[in-house]
Amino acid sequence: MCCVALPFPKSADFAVDKPGGVACRNLLDDFRCGIHSRLRESGYTGCTVFECFGAGQRVSAGPDWRTPGVAAPMFARFAKVRELHELLWHLAEALALPDAAAVHDDLARVAAEVDAAADDPDADVDACRRVALGPLREASALARRGLRGPDLAGADLIGRDLRGRALRGASLRGALLVGADLRRVDLHRADLTGADLRGADLRGADLRGALFVTRPQLAAAVGDAATRLPATRERPAHWR
């Protein structure tokens, strides 16, 4: 789905321009990627850091996009469902936090509402985000309680040398960490919701217990065998 529905510009992340609704030149007839094993070397790094959070599978159940009259509404729905599925992922992560038990009922209620919205073509994604924001922030605060990490939410930390900074339990929600040096930094229980980690140096960093860190965030960063990850996250292949 993402190989057809989404547009991308020629850049450091993509070797060519591709308009939305047009199949990528590397997409095979059986929907496999012809260069999947060498995306980075072929100039398609952007593909390796994208995640649809299962939205493609949900939207593409039924006739495929090549069926007359199906493509346009399917692609429009995909963009919306992808955002809702990312929100569902964060809600599921919060529900898995034992320290956030006090808001588990609220989180479960919101998750059910968001899941239902994903089947509604007229769903208001922004409204779903607003409803989820409070319980998610409360879950984060409960999980970080007692750690006294700094509040750096939304901070511009592009290219900053953060080695030696006390970021254990920090709020880094939406922080700009592009190219930041986080080598050997302790990020236990740091909230990384929406943090921009493109090119951030995580070599030797400790992300065990880091909150809401996604696979695309890790794939966009630099790490190594010494980077410690949450138990539920795989080490990106290019780190090896």
UniProtKB/TrEMBL annotation:
This is Pentapeptide repeat-containing protein. Signal peptide: none annotated. The lineage of its organism: Bacteria, Bacillati, Actinomycetota, Actinomycetes, Pseudonocardiales. InterPro entries: 5peptide_repeat, Pentapeptide-BTB/POZ_domain. Pfam families: Pentapeptide. It comes from Actinokineospora soli.
